Amino acid sequence: MCAGHDFAAPRRRDTKAWTVVAVVLAAGLRYEGLEACGCGKEPRFRPRTRAQVRARRIAAARTGTPLAELLGRPDPQTPA
Questions:
Q1: Is the pTM of this model over 0.90?
Q2: With pLDDT > 90 as the criterion, what percentage of the chain qualifies?
Q3: In contact, 16 and 50? CB cutoff 8 Å
Q4: Residue (of 51, 65, 62) closest to 20 by Cα position
């Protein structure tokens, strides 16, 4: 599976970081910048910690917003 041009793999033994990567990829998101070729200057937001994923899952459950949409927002409380 291709994670995207802007994907920076966590250390091999960092299982917490790999669980976050798994959640992002399972949601159908990729680590891409503004350009699909990977040459974008500003990569899109993707959560880096399990706390960030947890906050977005809670917000998705409360608002009914798809998790994939909230995983791409820097702040899950702000509308798109």
A1: no
A2: 60
A3: yes
A4: 51
